[in-house]
Amino acid sequence: MSELINNQAMRIQTLKEVILHLHRGEAPEDVRGQLKNLIAEVDASEIAAMEQQLMSDGMSSEEVRSMCDLHAEVLKEVMAKPCPSMPLLVGHPVQHFKAENAALQAAITTARLRVLSLGSLADTVTPKSERLSVLEAFQPLMDVEKHYRRKEQLVFSVLERHGTTGPSKVMWGKDDEVRELLKAAGMALHEEALSGAELKILKDTVLEPALTALEGMIYKEEHILFPMCLGMFTEEQWGEIWHQSAEYGWCLVAPGIGYQPPQARMVEGAIQLQATQAVAFPSGTLSFQQILGLFSVLPVDLTYVDAEDRVAFFSEGPDRVFERSRAIIGRSVQNCHPPKSVHIVDRILADFKAGRQSVAEFWIQMQGKFIHIRYFAMRNEAGAYLGTLEVTQDLTRLRALEGDRRLLQYEEA
User: CA 160, CA 330: separation in Å to the nearest integer?
Assistant: First the structure.
């Protein structure tokens, strides 16, 4: 038994086998008892390795995600406390994630108190003040989108470079569940004529589940994700995350000052041109400075995914439609998308590589804007696939144009 407890590989294997009992429908209290008998404690990296092995063995990320709340509940009693370490400087990415979680937890507490008060409402039209009070308490929680985007695009990107992809897929899917519940709560609370009975149902089916799901993600971040990343990431990688974080914004609290990140390194093997050095194309020559200027004024956003499905380049114009961070360079494009949409990405890439298609086109309505998204297969003169170019443009203004403009007229800045 001592060999089992002290051997990490065996702990992970035992953990996986016991968790499989949970997936087969065994009662959580029985699984919890088995764990306590077999394993004294496990750390965050071993839990991540267990999830990775489950998916390597063929279990889908959706199935793991559907059970991960039960996993977390069962694992609480055997989860090792993070080893004491030097306090994180104010402004360090993890310190700020934790500060945001503390602010979110305080907002959850306020929202839950107001939601609980709805249980006493009679079966009549809910007073507007009651409904608006709950809606007001939910507004700060909507800011979690910035927290999740930084985690998904920055932290997960670095995590995947260390060969750990399973937990990020599962956690992103849980993030999306929180998003959907918060969206449903916001839409329902905007309804003018909710009766007390309807609001009680809403409380049980949407409002409280949203708060519980958000709270559950805070626990998973604090006890699994952050300890695992702190033991894995280099200082340069934390600096990279810090440099790109402002692209996505801050949730409820602004970062403090204290952490001094190291400078980002150049991509290995890349050639850095001087501003005046030129690149000769078949149709002309541009200096490096001119190339940068060209990409900075294009009225479209460009993202290039190479033939190995890795993000290799994106343009950095002043008015991007979708935020991009340099941390995604080299990242598998599938991992840059929510799990629920990866099958569409795979379908496009497979059709492009096989030569069945060369263009895929979408358009969406987003925050009052009409967004046009196109994907183009890039091929050389012999027809070999070189990668995919994504072109995104806000067409709202162009679609509104009418008549003619034949005289020079500048737009106001």
Answer: 10
Write down the residue that tokens 């409904």 correspond to: 131
How many Å apart are CA 166 and CA 116, to the nearest integer? 36
Is residue 132 a contact partner of residue 18, using CB atoms and an 8 Å limit? no
In degrees and rounded to multiples of 5, residue 391 shows phi and psi of: -125, 120
The DSSP annotation for 103-147 comes to HHHHHHHHHHHHHHGGGG--SSBPPHHHHHHHHHHHGGGGGHHHH
Q: Which helix (H) or strand (E) holds 131?
A: helix 128-138
Q: In sequence order, which residues have a C-beta less than 8 Å from that of residue 388 and are 6 or more positions away? A: 304, 305, 333, 348, 349, 352, 375, 376, 377, 378
Per the prediction, the chain carries an average pLDDT of 85
Phi, psi of 364 (to 5 degrees): -135, 155
Helices (H), 269-325: 288-297
Residue 381 burial (C-beta neighbours within 10 Å; 0-12, 13-18, 19+): exposed
Evaluate whether 107 touches 140 at the Cβ level (below 8 Å).
yes
How far apart CA 376 and CA 191 sit, in angstroms, is 42
Could you tell me which residue, 258 or 359, shows the higher pLDDT?
359
Residue 140 carries which DSSP code?
A: G
pLDDT at 352 over 90: yes
- Compute the distance between CA of residue 34 and CA of residue 21 in angstroms, rounded to an integer: 10
Residue 218 CB contacts under 8 Å (≥ 6 apart), including other chains: 101, 104, 105
Instruction: Report the alpha-carbon distance of residue 61 to residue 54 in Å, rounded.
Output: 9
Per-residue pLDDT reduced to its tens digit, 7-38: 667 777 777 777 777 777 777 777 767 666 66
The overall pTM is greater than 0.70: yes
φ, ψ dihedrals at 35, nearest 5°: -60, -45
Nearest-angstrom CA–CA distance, 177 and 72: 16
Which residues neighbour 129 within 8 Å (Cβ) at sequence distance 6 or greater? none
- Encode burial over 30-67: b for 16+ CB neighbours within 10 A, e otherwise: ebbebbeebbeebbbbbbbbbbbbbbeeebebeebbeb
